[in-house]
Amino acid sequence: MPIIAKQANYDRIYKNNKGTSIVIKNSQPSTLPVFFLTEMWERYGFYVVQTLLAIYLAMHFSWPDEQIYTLIGSFTALTYLSPFVGGWIADRYLGQKFAVLLGAFILMSSYIILSLSDHIPTLIATLAAISVGTGLLKPNISSLLGNQYADDCTMRESGFTIFYLGITAGIILGTTLPSIFNHFFGWQMAFLSAAVGLGLAILTFIYGITFNKIANYPSARKKTASNYFKSALILFVLWLLNKEIMLLPKFANMVFPAICCAAIAFILHSLYTEERVQAKRTIMILFLCIISVMFWSFYFQMFMSLTLFIIRAVENIFLGIKFTPPYYVAIQSFGMIVIGFISTRTKKNIQLSVEQQAKNIMNKFVCALGLMLLTYIWIDGVCHFTPNNNKISPLLIIPGYLIISQAELLLSPVGISAITILSCRKKVSTMMGIFFVSLGLGGFFSGKLANLTAVAIQTTDLVYLKQRYTLGFDKLSLILAVCFAFSLLLKSLSSQVLIKK
Hints:
The protein starts with a strand and ends with a helix. The longest helix is centred in the C-terminal third of the chain and has 38 residues, at 462-499. It has a 3-stranded antiparallel beta sheet, with no helix packed on it. Strands 4-5 form a two-stranded antiparallel sheet. By secondary structure, it is mainly alpha-helical. Residues 1-25 have low confidence and may be disordered. It contains 15 helices and 5 strands. Helix 4 (120-146) crosses helix 7. It folds into 2 domains: 1-29, no CATH class; 31-499, Growth Hormone, Chain: A. A hairpin with a 2-residue loop joins strand 4 and strand 5. Helices cover 77% and strands 3% of the residues.
């Protein structure tokens, strides 16, 4: 039963033996595996650094908690704030395909340098370059995927969930293999594996855009030497700025709020210039970004306070093996694959209007934040109800990470898909960058929140450590409860926006 045609919304048309046409509605585009594999290897490289950085700084350089949290918070923030610039450059100068390739090349080069040197100045400069490369790649590959679907295609959200499972597969590899490499061969080999992953991403993407003839979003840009020069200059300035932010925490405290204001100003300007229907959709993007900031502020504790909490207060042997913090992230990611696979198999693809989709997306975002609150209540309860003189069993921590699996699936792939639905066509990459700004601000605030659990002195006194972390998680749970209440208010406001004529 050979395929004889494929319509714009990815309906597949077959002819049976009697010559009768059979239409299978809304199948996934053939280009999906290209984006899946490219993003998988990009995430592998990023999570090699993300999951090992706190341990690397604490054990290799003997940094204090506050300094570790500040650097990781700034690094995490910058990797998700830079997509605002990366998306804007793609829309205005480079196009999405070239931006993805350039970002991947910068990332591969950065990981190679990181594997060759363990000096702090080089480490900081390399982390700044990683943030620039991520800023180019992440918003634009997501935008390219969104461009593969017609506006009324009911398979879009399922496609982005499958795409996100590629991200998750990269996270699982990036949180397990590097720990093994580090154990047997040292830190440098773990970081070098990230460069190998990016090399595979580059080869996959080049093959994909050539074989499948993947197109950029339409725009008025022209491929001129002037545009390439402007892009190079902007990226160099971005690298210098990111490096200084990580070196000077007080500077970061000024820059991040300024970036937040710039993103809000862009959205407000869009509201002023857009027609009414599009303006309502842009308001929804703003509300979703606010909830996203709150969600990621607590999610990124997995790489900060929860990492050091597990090292210090949780048993490090599970099922007869040494069970390090990256393995908990791997379990969380594996949980996402199982839940995501089930959801894509059981999801009913009902065609909805854009406004109806926006309402469903808001409900999922609020539910995600509620599940994150449940996670912190669970971990806080474990701290309260286990004896202070005993380390905590990993079996009591793992359920909290699995709850995060469901929460992340309700927010992250849904949010990326939402941007491609709700954005003006000419601003998709820029709006995708703004959505990633919400992740960046979440990373920045997560560094601030992690200080509530910081251990002031280097000690192995288990009773002191348990008491300190219990108090810290009490505070985090209370703050998160307030955030959840605020998200319910935004949900109510969004309903009013959508029904308003």
